[in-house]
Design goal:
Largest sheet: none
Number of domains: 1
Radius of gyration: 19 Å
Strand content: under 5%
Oligomer: single chain
Number of strands: 0
Distance between the termini: 30 Å
Helix content: over 70%
Length: 309
Amino acid sequence: MNIHMRKTGLALVIIGSTFWGVGGTVSQKLFQQFDIEVNWLVTARMLIAGILLLTVQFLGKDRTQILKVWKNKKAALQLLIFGIFGMLTVQYTYMASIKHGNAAVATLLQYLSPAMIILYLVIRKQTILSRQDVLTCFLALFGCFFLLTNGSLSQLSVPMPAITWGILSAVASAFYTLYAVRLLNQFDSFVIVGWAMLIGGSALSFIHPLWRVDLHRFNGEAYLYLIFVIVFGTMLAFWFYIESLQSLSAKETSLLSSLEPLASVLTTVIWLKEPFGFFQWAGTACIIGMILLLALNKQVPKEAGKLSA
């Protein structure tokens, strides 16, 4: 393989994963400083990013797939379910967790989804529980405990609404990771994710339309943050991740994508000055260790959450 292509692939996955992580922190900034509503931000993010992804598909890939997915009734129904119960649900719960807590905790809680997938597959008797699976689940449990309590047995260090939304985000992420496999095996990922975002954003528009927003809250800084969340933290992050697969193995991209929660934690602590105790750092290490363990093993399906988070 061309060394230049490999270096390009490494740069793309590193930049894309960093964009994902920082995107959550920038969303927190929008919530805190400009009092942006969760419903509106999720609607805007999904609609605009969905249009951009389908535009990329139309201009540079197999444009016939954009409409082909709707000509298959079974695939069309699966796409609708994925868009509403998968994409929309995980986007909303993730952003709600950030709103009530912070981006670092929300991102780390969402990354508990692989452990949930393992337990689900074991319960359904689709796989046998291995020693590595047990270690993965223990890392997830200890990481979650340290992250949410900072080592205290008497009180939580994170607001309960943030924990609730974060765990729901992990459940939703586990659902669409498993559910998306059939669609991604048939159609290009840009098509599936692009349409899923449009479906989810359109559904949420009935509750909070894109045009129902107080523009007086926005200034130049707010618009820059919004552009980053939508373009860099969603559309480009996904694009770079997928492009990196052209020159890197799936294992390499999965390992390097663990930079996402690390980037989220570091920017939340350093930029937003969020307090993070010793045991919370220990919990972060456990969860990132769990991600690396799974990436090395590759028994859990490749995370569709990488296409949207």
